[in-house]
Write a structure and sequence with these properties.
Blueprint: E1 14-18, H1 28-36, E2 45-52, H2 58-66, E3 85-91, E4 94-96, E5 99-101, E6 107-114, H3 122-138, E7 141-147, H4 156-173, H5 185-188, E8 191-198, H6 206-223, E9 239-245, H7 253-268, H8 288-303, H9 310-334, H10 337-347, H11 350-372, H12 377-420, H13 428-452, H14 458-508, H15 514-530, H16 552-577, H17 580-596, H18 609-631, H19 670-700
Parallel strand pairs: 2-6, 2-7, 7-8, 8-9
Antiparallel strand pairs: 1-3, 3-6, 4-5
Helix pairs in contact: 2-7, 3-4, 3-8, 8-9, 9-11, 9-12, 11-12, 12-13, 12-14, 13-14, 14-15, 14-16, 17-18, 17-19, 18-19
The structure holds guanosine-5'-diphosphate and magnesium ion (MG).
């Protein structure tokens, strides 16, 4: 495993990206951080790789061209053999005719492949193939380094390498080359093969060397076994080819340097430069922070001889990175969310809450967009939806909590609004419905404030509405129940007064038609008090009452209940009053009135016993007659009074208890009757005795 090498301003130090054991460096993030000094370069970077025979001067060229510090043979006499592996160096310093340029936005990463001279040993061939695959997967430009004298002579090594490069490239991009969707990045992807011809003496002009090389390359391409989908493809579908000659480094050192600078120009100056070497279609379109993961994944696949599918790799990276960015965003903006939101909820500060939520949403999506939009668009958008849904989930919770508080408050205000409402032309229920409507409107307005800012989704709105409606209905029913209760208790009170005052006075001094009077009074009072529950036209059909406004069903229930209560009160009053002693008293009074007093209420002065006996007989008859009337409640047409209500029709309240309505008329039973009569007789016999005594006294005078 290689160690990180700190960046050096003088020379750009390299890091061993893949070591001799074919392990991928874990020091890459640190290396990037060191050489970039924390700059975020996004996709503004380029990757170059170099291939060629061992000791063909690759590292020497790279170091000169890019101010890097790759190992060269000269520099490391001690180390006899160059280490196998792939080195990576960052540079901004390109050697050009305008000097060593270190332009901003000119970050280049260079891969120096070492030990790729694998004609002899099988194991090296394996590494060479893997290195080529890797270089193609991650770099935009591949420098192919070769000597002038190698050109034209069929050299197994070089051409073998190129064959490998072509094959590997086809395996990566060939299967997608005929794909119809033009948006696929891999389809448009190309790579630049930059042939650098070393020790170019100049006798053979570059053009003829180029054409020799080109035809060799085309021949290799022709003979290549290609996948079915790209049988007809040409080398130019996959590669751009460029050729550069460099003079002999030792024999023509000045010219060599000049050639290097000319080449450097094309790596650094893109303005008005047709020869500029980096083209957009070479780029792998990954932000640098994704590139390290991408290249590691690629190497892992390659090293384990797995199928390397670059679009999949890019998507994997995009997925991982956008996930990471999404989570960072959520952490950043929701870390203190609860504690920031809480006071606003407690203060019931809607505007501030909306403002805060909007700002969180704008800022967090802004952060995500900034960082994640650099990755595969589809994945970036997928995760953006995920992010928004997570933000929304969080918001829904808050908003629901907030709105529920408000809806509770609104609904609780219903009772107050109802009691302060002085509308006298509407019924209770109409007012209740009117105020409820008003509250509902205010509730909807409240929700729409959040909706306008796109802070609440339809699902939540539906849920909140349902809860609100349910809650409101419950409250309305409660208020109706209270209203019903108050109607009933009011009725009970009034009815009770009326009955107590009148019925008792009828009973206390009963006439023959006492029950007619009781009943006509009772019916009259009931009619008066029940008028609002009864329709005049059809007695069986109860309609809305003006002042209560309940449904016919509820009115009907209340109506029946009240009638039941009225009968109950009458029953209790009558039966309580007509107890044995009271009845005896009533009879006695009746008797005495008739026996002792004349029509002018003057006490009668008895003349003889006969007169007393006659009067006694009449008075007793009258009293007994009334007794008959009191014993059983019948109207004068001899109809027993039976309450016209049924227990089944009402929910009996606890304090009413159940009584036997059918026994209403039976006021005094046989045993009571005998007792009363015995008492009554004794008392009137005494009265007679008294009368006779008084007569004796008067006559003896
Ligand atoms: P690499 O193994 O391809 O990286 O080769 P090096 O850069 O280590 O160079 C190998 C040897 O070739 C060194 O001794 C260099 O001095 C020498 N060398 C480098 N560039 C040139 C060149 O342009 N012409 C000649 N003739 N020799 C070179
Ligand atoms: Mg080297």
């Amino acid at each position: 495993m290689s160690e990180e090498i700190p960046a050096d301003t003088a020379k750009n130090m390299a890091v061993q990206l893949i070591n001799e054991d074919k392990e991928f460096s874990q020091g890459l993030p640190v290396y990037f951080n060191n050489c970039l000094g924390g700059r975020d370069i996004d996709q503004n970077y380029h990757v170059i790789s170099v291939f060629g025979s061992q000791s063909s001067g690759k590292s020497t060229l790279l170091n000169l061209l890019f101010n890097t510090n790759f190992d060269t043979m000269d520099a490391h006499e001690k180390r006899q053999q160059t280490t196998k592996g792939i080195w990576l160096s960052h540079t901004q310093a390109v050697n050009t005719n305008r000097g060593v340029r270190s332009d901003p936005g000119s970050d280049i990463f260079i891969l120096d492949v070492e030990g790729s001279d694998g004609a002899e040993r099988g194991e090296d061939q394996d590494f060479e193939r893997k290195a080529a695959l890797f270089a193609i997967a991650v770099s935009e430009v591949m420098i192919i380094n070769l000597w002038e004298q190698q050109i034209g002579l069929y050299q197994g090594n070089n051409m073998g390498l190129l064959k490998t490069v072509f094959e590997v490239n086809l395996s990566l991009f060939g299967k997608n080359s005929k794909r119809s969707d033009a948006s696929s990045h891999s389809q448009k992807h190309k790579m630049l093969l930059l042939f650098v011809i070393r020790d170019h003496i100049g006798v053979t002009p570059l053009e003829s060397l180029s054409s020799t090389l080109t035809s060799e390359l085309e021949n290799i391409w022709k003979d290549l076994s290609k996948p079915a989908s790209c049988q007809d493809s040409t080398i130019y579908d996959f590669f751009d080819l460029k050729f550069v000659g460099l003079s002999h480094k030792i024999l023509r050192a000045d010219k060599f340097l000049e050639d290097v600078k000319n080449l450097g120009d094309n790596f650094s100056n893109k303005e008005n430069n047709d020869e500029y070497l980096f083209k957009p279609e070479f780029h792998h379109m990954l932000p640098l922070d994704g590139w390290s993961m991408y290249s590691e994944n690629c190497w892992d696949q390659i090293e384990n001889n797995k199928d390397l599918d670059l679009p999949t790799q890019q998507i994997l990276v995009a997925r991982f990175k956008t996930d990471e960015i999404m989570n960072e965003t959520l952490t950043k903006y929701f870390e203190n969310y609860d504690s920031n939101i809480k006071p606003l909820i407690l203060e019931n500060n809607k505007d501030a809450l909306i403002e805060m939520l909007v700002s969180i949403k704008v800022q967090s999506t802004g952060m995500y967009d900034d960082l994640a939009s650099r990755y595969t668009k589809q994945i970036y958008l997928e995760n953006r939806i995920k992010l928004l849904s997570k933000i929304n989930d969080k918001f829904q919770e808050t908003i629901e909590l907030f709105i529920q508080g408000t809806s509770t408050e609104l609904i609780d205000s219903l009772k107050k609004s109802l009691s302060t409402n002085d509308d006298e032309t509407s019924s209770f229920n109409e007012i209740l419905i009117e105020i409820s409507k008003d509250i509902t409107t205010r509730f909807h307005e409240f929700i729409s404030n959040f909706k306008e800012k796109d802070l609440i989704n339809e699902e939540s709105i539906a849920e909140l509405n349902a809860k609100f409606t349910k809650f409101l209905n419950k409250k309305q029913n409660e208020l109706r129940a209270i209203q019903v209760k108050s109607i009933i208790s009011q009725f009970k009170k009034n009815m009770n007064f009326a009955i107590k005052d009148n019925v008792i006075s009828y009973l206390a001094n009963p006439s023959d038609d006492v029950w007619d009077r009781v009943m006509s009074f009772f019916k009259r009072s009931m009619d008066e008090l029940l008028i609002k529950f009864e329709t005049t036209s059809d007695n069986s059909m109860k309609t809305y009452d003006f002042q209560v406004g309940f449904t016919p069903e509820l009115n009907d229930t209340i109506y029946k209940r009240l009638r039941y209560i009225a009968w109950y009160l009458l029953n209790v009053t009558v039966h309580d009053y007509l107890k044995e002693d009271a009845v005896i008293g009533i009879l006695r009074e009746k008797f005495e009135n008739s026996f002792r007093y004349d029509e002018n209420d003057t006490p009668i002065l008895w003349k003889d016993e006969n007169q007393i006996d006659n009067a006694f007989k009449i008075a007793k008859e009258q009293a007994l007659n009334i007794f008959g009337v009191l014993c059983i409640a019948k109207t004068t047409d001899n109809t027993e009074i039976i309450p016209d209500v049924r227990v089944e029709d009402v929910e009996v309240e606890d304090d009413l208890g159940i009584y036997h309505l059918e026994r209403f008329a039976h006021i005094i039973n046989e045993i009571q009757k005998e007792k009363i009569l015995r008492q009554f007789r004794r008392q009137i016999n005494l009265s007679v005795l008294d009368a006779k005594r008084s007569m004796i006294t008067t006559t003896t005078h």
